[in-house]
Each structure stands twice: as structure tokens, then as C-alpha cells.
Design goal:
Length: 470
């Protein structure tokens, strides 16, 4: 091969690794599943936007105060030492996702994922200001003029207003939202709050307004590993080719059975309503987010044609293969995979709830005084000095008694036997333990320091340490 032919050969073998995006303008659809999506959008956003404004015991009901290292969730207050509860919550969330996916596919993606929810909201705004999918396509193809500039400008203004409010609310979970609102109005907002409001707003505006299905196709890892949680009994959005094929257009009066046709009229409505632009008739694809818009669209066409619904429906691979009828779907929900997920979820959820119910709102820490292991008092007794930290993790004040055990006659020095702590207060104090040398058996003796609330016997915590002889 000559050098002159080399560029031509290279050009002939060049491949496009990333498909150029074709902008999707999905057609609006109405039906049972569309109503469910609307209901879930309203529910999730009512919770998201409303929770920071809810007050509980004269404070914000849900607040993750990173600066103070306290996390308020209604009547509970969590500290960094309670990180195990976050771990448990993440495990429960993961197992729930595995269970729901094994039973009914990508329910999370189709109805509750923030990407889906905000894309849906932004598309409502787009449909309201620019018209239906046909009008939007015409607007996309039209040259820039005053009308197009006005419509697009107004749309993006509304989009960014929603995104800013979303970012403001997000930061309101970490900075008291009433304080945040006052600082915003007065123009005294701090640099970090400003950054995160704008960052989250920009992410919402970009993901829901521009990237949309690209996030689901290329950025979301769930789409890539969902297949390991599917099996032949998982409910998925499915085109039933056994009743739809051969497809083809026909008039409403045509006897499709006599004409040798299936019930699919090849109208492509299922493609037009799909937010990710796939054709469900080609089989299950990883881009499908399980929103069931194609089911609503197809059912509308079947109703118009007078055909039975169910050409596209939630069903299982085994039903389509004829291994059991649709009526057997519920019976096949209980299978080894889902039983294991359910048992694990139940056990961990039970342990999580039990741990919360029996959680002691008191933490203590004991550190020895390293200046001297021990010393002898004027009375000939042996004294060890410690640094005791008491964290009252309760929203109520308490008085605590301090006791020590492990050595016969072990005493807590006067002045540290009765300590008052306010709500959520941390107290550091020196603590002296005194023992008779006649009772000390060895150089280092294990002892236990106990702190208990005088007004609540259920609040009690122990800490182990060492008592050193001279």
C-alpha cells in the first residue's frame, strides 16, 4: 500500500463510537400509567419541597447540619457516631431496589427517579409554552425570529426558575431553610450556599432540560447492571408479537384476522410517546425505563380500532412464551430470588427498627491522663485521673450520675458524681477514681465507668478503661 492510499484506507475504516443525538420530542399520552406518573411527581415533589419548611420541636424537622455535626430527622437526632444507621439505610435502599427490580423491572426509573421526575416537569412546561410534539418539532426546524426567541426564552426562564428553587431547597436540607431564605432576600448569602444552589440548579436545568434521555442511556449505571436482577418471571413492558404480528396498517372496518394480520396497526405511537426514543416492538432494551407510556399509547389505539388491549403490557417473558397465562403472574412473584431478597430485607429492616427503638441517646468517651499513670493521695490511696466526655444526644436535658466498678471500694471523686447536661450538649470534665491499694491485684486492673440518667433508668452507658497501681 502506498502512502497516498493510506488516508483513504483510514477513512474507510473509521467508526463512530458515539451516536449523534437525535432530539426527541415525545408525544403526550394519557392513561392509567400516565396518571400514576403524575401522582408520583406530585407526591415526591411535595415531600421534597415541603419537608424543609416543616417544624418539629421548634426546629426544622429534617436538617443535616454538617457544621454542627448533628442530623435532625423529626424527633431523632443523629451524630457522626451514628454513621451505622446511614449504612443500614443504604443497605435497605439497595435491597429494596433489587426486590422491586426482580418483581417488576425499572419501577424506580419510570416513576420516582429524580431524572425522570424533573424531565417530566420540564416537558410539562415545554408542552404548555411551545405546544404539542408537532408544534415543537416545527419550532425546532424554524429559523430564529422574534416568536421563537420569545417562546424559547420564556421556556428557559421558567425552567431555570424551577431549577433555582430546586437548588435552594436542596441547600435548605443542610442550612436551616428559613435562615437561608432570609440571607437570600437580604443578599448576605454565603459563598458555599451560593455555589451549591447554583451548581444544583445548573445540574437540574442541564439534565432535565437538555440531556434528558442521554442521562438514562449513557450516564446511569443502573441501566447497565439491571439485567442481572431480571429473570424470565420479571414483569417488564413487553410487546406481545404473538398477537401483534404480522403488523400493518388497515382501516377500522378491516377484519384483520381474515386479512392475516395481527392487532398491531404499525401506527408507531409507541415510539412517538417513548421518552428515550426506542421501539418496544424490537424487544426489551436497556434504554427502556419502564415508564409504560407506550402501554397507554397503544391502549388508546386499540380502543379506537375496537381491538382488545394488551398488545403492549406489563407481563413476563414466560407468559409471552406461553409457559403460563397472565393469571399466573402473581403466583410466580414468589420465587427463590424474590424470597431471598424479601427475607434479607425483612431481617435487616427489623434489626434497623429495633436498633432505633432501643437506641440510647447518650455517648461517653474516656481518655486517661497521660501526664501520670497514677499517684498517691495524702490518705495513702491510689488515684487515677481521666478525661470524661459526655454527649447528651437527646432533645431533653438530663442529670447524670457517674459510677465506677471493677475494684472493691472504688470511688468517684467528689464533684463529678452528679452532672447536668442540656439538650444535645457535650460536656468534657476531669474524672478522678480512687482506690485502696490493698484492693489492687496487679499493675493494671480493668474497670468500668458507668453514666446513667437520674430521671430515666433506660439511659445508661458504660465505658471500659484501666486503673493503674503505683
Amino acid at each position: 500500500m502506498t502512502d497516498d492510499n493510506k488516508p483513504a484506507a483510514d477513512a474507510a475504516t473509521e467508526q463512530q463510537l458515539y451516536a449523534i443525538r437525535q432530539k426527541i420530542q415525545p408525544r403526550a399520552v394519557h392513561g392509567v400509567f400516565a396518571n400514576w406518573r403524575i401522582a408520583l411527581v406530585l407526591l415526591t415533589q411535595t415531600l421534597y419541597y415541603g419537608l424543609p419548611w416543616l417544624q418539629w420541636d421548634h426546629r426544622q424537622a429534617v436538617l443535616f447540619d454538617l457544621a454542627a455535626r448533628k442530623f435532625y430527622i423529626f424527633g431523632l437526632v443523629f451524630w457522626p457516631q451514628d454513621f451505622v444507621y446511614l449504612t443500614g439505610l443504604l443497605i435497605l435502599s439497595a435491597l429494596s431496589l433489587f426486590l422491586f427490580t426482580a418483581v417488576a423491572g425499572r419501577l424506580w426509573c419510570g416513576y420516582a427517579c429524580p431524572q425522570t421526575v424533573y424531565t417530566e416537569i420540564f416537558m410539562w412546561v415545554e408542552n404548555w409554552l411551545e405546544g404539542d410534539h408537532v408544534a415543537r418539532r416545527k419550532l425546532d426546524a424554524s429559523p430564529w425570529n422574534a416568536t421563537k426567541l420569545r417562546k424559547r426564552g420564556l421556556k428557559h426562564a421558567v425552567w431555570f426558575a424551577i431549577a433555582l428553587w430546586t437548588g435552594f431547597t436542596f441547600v435548605g436540607y443542610f442550612t436551616p431553610i428559613q435562615t437561608l431564605a432570609a440571607e437570600t432576600i437580604s443578599g448576605s448569602l454565603g459563598p458555599w450556599e451560593t455555589f451549591w444552589i447554583l451548581f444544583y440548579a445548573f445540574a437540574t436545568w442541564g439534565n432535565a432540560g437538555f440531556m434528558r434521555e442521554q442521562v438514562c442511556k449513557y450516564m446511569c449505571p443502573y441501566a447497565r447492571f439491571q439485567s442481572v436482577m431480571f429473570d424470565s418471571d420479571t414483569l417488564t413492558v413487553t410487546y406481545d408479537s404473538s398477537i401483534g404480528e404480522p403488523r400493518g396498517p388497515r382501516s377500522k372496518k378491516t377484519d384483520y384476522k381474515a386479512a392475516g394480520l395481527g392487532t398491531c396497526v404499525d401506527c408507531s405511537v409507541c415510539v412517538q410517546v417513548c421518552p428515550t426514543g426506542i421501539d418496544i416492538r424490537n424487544g426489551l432494551q436497556y434504554e427502556c425505563i419502564g415508564c409504560a407510556a407506550c402501554i397507554d399509547g397503544c391502549d388508546q389505539i386499540m380502543d379506537k380500532m375496537g381491538y382488545p388491549r394488551g398488545l403492549i403490557r406489563y407481563t413476563t417473558e414466560n407468559v409471552v412464551k406461553g409457559k403460563y397465562p397472565d393469571a399466573g403472574i402473581v403466583r410466580h412473584v414468589l420465587r427463590p430470588r424474590t424470597i431471598i431478597y424479601t427475607v434479607l430485607l425483612t431481617l435487616i429492616a427489623g434489626a434497623f427498627v429495633y436498633s432505633l427503638a432501643t437506641r440510647v441517646p447518650l455517648t461517653i468517651g474516656v481518655v486517661r491522663d497521660r501526664a501520670a499513670l497514677s499517684k498517691e493521695t495524702d490518705e495513702g490511696l491510689i488515684e487515677n485521673v481521666y478525661r470524661l466526655q459526655i454527649i447528651n444526644k437527646d432533645g431533653q436535658p438530663h442529670r447524670y450520675a457517674i459510677e465506677a466498678t471493677g475494684i472493691a471500694g472504688l470511688q468517684v471523686a467528689a464533684g463529678a458524681r452528679d452532672i447536668a447536661a442540656g439538650p444535645l450538649q457535650t460536656i468534657d470534665l476531669p474524672l478522678s477514681l480512687i482506690a485502696d491499694p490493698a484492693e489492687l491485684k496487679g499493675r493494671s486492673i480493668p474497670v468500668t465507668i458507668t453514666v446513667r440518667a437520674l430521671d430515666d433508668p433506660g439511659i445508661r452507658t458504660d465505658a471500659a478503661t484501666k486503673f493503674f497501681n503505683r
